[in-house]
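Hey, I was hoping to borrow your eyes for a little while. I've dropped the whole record in just underneath, so have a look:

——
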Amino acid sequence: MKRSFIVFLALAALICGNLTLPASAEVDAPAKGAHIVAYYFHGSFRCPTCKKLEQYSKEAITSNFKDELASGKLEFKVVNVEDKGNEHYTGDYQLFTKSLVLSKVVDGKEASWKNLDKIWDLVGDKDRFVGYVKDEVTGFLKE
C-alpha cells in the first residue's frame, strides 16, 4: 500500500514535469529483452474439447510458471482469431484449428515460434498434456 502511494506521487510529479525517475525506479516495468508469449487461439464456436484445451493450457502455464508470469518473462493470452484485428494470426502461425503457440519476443520483435500441435493428441490425458506444455515452455524459456 505504501509503495503504491509513493509510485502514485512520483507519477503525479512526472506528469506535472517536476521530477524525472532514475532507471532503477522502473521496478514494476515488464521484462525487457526476451520474453515468451503463450497464445491459445480459438474461434467463435467453442466445443467442450476446445474449452478443455484452453483450460489445460492455462493450468499448465499458471501452475508451473508463477515466477516467470509475475516477472513478465512469460505471458499467457487467449485470442479469438475471428475477432476483428486478430485474423492475421491465422496466417502468421499457419493455424487451421484451435492451437497453443509459443512465441519468443526479443526487443519487441518475434524471434521464433512453435505450435504445440500435440495438445490435440493429449487432451484425453490431463497429466500428459500438462507435462507436455510444461516441457515445451521450459525449453523455450531456456533458449
The chain is about 45% helix and 20% strand.
